[in-house]
Amino acid sequence: MNPGFSSWIEIEPVSPVFIGSDEKIERFETIVEGNMVYILDFQKLLGRDDFVELFVAKMQDILDPSVKDRAMKEIFQKLNLKLSEVSLDSFPAQWRNNKPDNLQMKRFVRSAGRYYVPGSSIKGAIRTALIRSDQSLVRRFEDLLKTIVEDSMKESKQGMKREKERNINIKGGIFGSPNQSPFRLLEISDSDFIDKKFVKFKLITVRNLLNVKTKISMMLELWLDKQDESNKVRVLLQSRVDRLSQMKNWITDPGKLLETLGDKGKFIEAVKSATEKIIQLEIERIKKALNSNEFKLILGFYEKLREENKKMRDGFILRLGAQTGFFSKTFFTRFLNRNELEFLKSTHKVYNLFPVSISIAEPSYESPVPKPLGWVRVRFVS
């Protein structure tokens, strides 16, 4: 058995990527001026004693949405501050009933104010890909889900009370606790920092493939897919199969995963195979959309992505981050049946579009073509 490998990998976005920090932009942190929304840099503003003094004095007005913008502009006017000087970002306002829409706004993950890709996010994406590439593992997962769904339906028919949100840990059912998982042998560092000029707020639309009128809009702080040599990050990936002897009492039934984790070539081919499956699923479900013509550009993007993934020899295409869709986050290589969907809806916190939605970065001046979120190019550089 091969002892594993250690390599530096480079990651660059081929579509906008969102990795959330659970940090939201609150309404009082924005100002509408003309047709633009400005996101205020409160970290910078709160460093000024004169601003803090005026902000506290006008707090009652600032917390009133009807006069909030006027109160903030009065403060800036008194301090001779321009909006462009105290804003993190700005974007065109979205209007509804002649009023700017109060869109949800979420920030990209940061450390000490600098953007990066957490190793845990990369590992999660690769782990799901490796599971999907192994048909024996997929069958085990599907068999376990089938058993859980059937038991749930029996309980429902018998009138047995069941918790609204059961803790369904299917991966744990296969691999045991996290301490027992063979993926403990895979170690991935956090990336180095992303150049802040490549991170911007953009309009994202979550669209229902079966009802074109149903959509949810939000503003996300994204790592943009600008083609620039500096728009890459490096990560150290280590497959520590050589540590298996120390973990033999912990690792539960690793199966063929050890062969994949032990050899860099097999590792790359496994992830490429999984990416091919998820791209095919995405193409199939878009073609089933009520108005598939609306998504022609997205289909074209996926066809090019599939070709690139096939041709890569030193890496693979990978789905990474949040808002990338249900099938990208799970081990499924097929569409789910009605019972499975209803069960997963009842046990997970999901919105009404689950799982027939697609999150799209809308066209803009910088990127005139709409793209699905969360695709990156991964290359092994050592």
TrEMBL record:
<dbReference type="InterPro" id="IPR005537">
    <property type="entry name" value="RAMP_III_fam"/>
</dbReference>
<keyword id="KW-0694">RNA-binding</keyword>
<comment type="function">
    <text>This subunit might be involved in maturation of a crRNA intermediate to its mature form.</text>
</comment>
<comment type="similarity">
    <text>Belongs to the CRISPR-associated Csm5 family.</text>
</comment>
<keyword id="KW-0051">Antiviral defense</keyword>
<dbReference type="GO" id="GO:0003723">
    <property type="term" value="F:RNA binding"/>
</dbReference>
<dbReference type="Pfam" id="PF03787">
    <property type="entry name" value="RAMPs"/>
</dbReference>
<dbReference type="GO" id="GO:0051607">
    <property type="term" value="P:defense response to virus"/>
</dbReference>
<feature type="domain" description="CRISPR type III-associated protein">
    <location>
        <begin position="11"/>
        <end position="345"/>
    </location>
</feature>
<dbReference type="InterPro" id="IPR010173">
    <property type="entry name" value="CRISPR-assoc_Csm5"/>
</dbReference>
<protein>
    <recommendedName>
        <fullName>CRISPR system Cms protein Csm5</fullName>
    </recommendedName>
</protein>
